[in-house]
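Bench log, entry 3. Co-assembly request; chain sequences pasted below exactly as received.
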Amino acid sequence: MQDIFISPLETGMVSWMEAFAKAKISATVQVSPTKIQKNAFVIFWLHMNEDRQEWLTNAIQLIQKKYVNAKIVVLANAPNQAEAFHAMSMGVVAYSHAYSPAFVLTEIKTVISHGGVWLGQDLLKRIIEVSTSLAGNQAEQVNQHLKSLTKREKEVAVEAAKGLSNKEIARILKITERTVKAHLSSTFERLGAKDRLHLALMLNKKPT
Amino acid sequence: MQDIFISPLETGMVSWMEAFAKAKISATVQVSPTKIQKNAFVIFWLHMNEDRQEWLTNAIQLIQKKYVNAKIVVLANAPNQAEAFHAMSMGVVAYSHAYSPAFVLTEIKTVISHGGVWLGQDLLKRIIEVSTSLAGNQAEQVNQHLKSLTKREKEVAVEAAKGLSNKEIARILKITERTVKAHLSSTFERLGAKDRLHLALMLNKKPT
DNA sequence: TAAAAACCTGTCCTTTAGACCAATAGTTTT
DNA sequence: AAAACTATTGGTCTAAAGGACAGGTTTTTA
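Structure output for the full assembly:
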């Protein structure tokens, strides 16, 4: 088990040292291969300054290529959601604030060493918001379609357009599946949609 | 600090007991208020059987109403992404398998008691797939998707994403409906789409 | 207030989708 | 040459979707 901190700060940050006294620190990702035990469980902790986006991308790719089994954690000076998304989608298993206290760092380590993924509550909330609701900027043209629907039909239609099943919609809106079907049927009728897939395409149409 | 397990099983599950010897167990959410210390840090562990979707929803809402500061964890017998999504979007802070070993449960507790959120790697990956619109170039993303498909799969996927039925696709491509299904199945597999509607949403995603 | 629209639910039935299992044959990669 | 991938088709089976037909209750509106 090895922890390797990649940070421009020579000394490393205080809380890191506190959490992992035996950690190696390096200024670049080009860690001497001899320092890394083959088949060891290695965690790379990348310290992310502002304005090093492309450095981060490259670093992650390089690590993943050289050390296939290594886990990568990003600690950002100024965490932001876009960067977090980017990092996580590249396979990073944790994204947190660089000034996280030592106990958070040890927590992260525990979680990821058991195959888990760690991220803060606000980020997760954001992720879920984004992925469960239709994007706002299209609300305009969606309205054109939706305005001919009744309130309830609208609600059902929006959920259906996200890809939810009738059962799921029923649960969310606290009505029976049968009622969901009724609303959908009349929605198809009004909008001239063939089925729920066409409805989804109508409501998710790209702005041109 | 109190742990309250809500489970239909009278005795509670083995690993739970192992992890939290002092935990209270109850069959319903209607825990006697006297048993809960005011201002205590309470964690509700909800044991989720199959086919209790609406029970879960109600239980969560009830807990959130009665115990504003309580954290809620869902342990599912048969975890699935839709349910996980639903639970997390309602404010649940962890979602895991009901048969998780004791060390995972203690991990979860550690994480959420520090304000974090716990979830398994596969769920997160799925979340990110669904919400990658924030992560970068959308056209690129679609390309990435299509690139991983074979020539024939691509043709079928594109038609399906337009809203055509299997029968129509079969006619257009001059193959049997059965073959269309086969191509679609492997396409869903490769792209991580749940069904043709999700496929359509992936391929028709608008740039944000 | 009476009619209309919206909302909710039920049963029965047909079609469609998609998973699982299995097989054949050509092509590409190792 | 063996292994892996691709394209094709078949059958069975389950669940979901959606139409047809038939009710109710609540809210809006003329």
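The longest strand of chain B covers residues 42-48. The beta strands of chain B are 2-6, 24-26, 42-48, 71-76, 94-97, 116-119.
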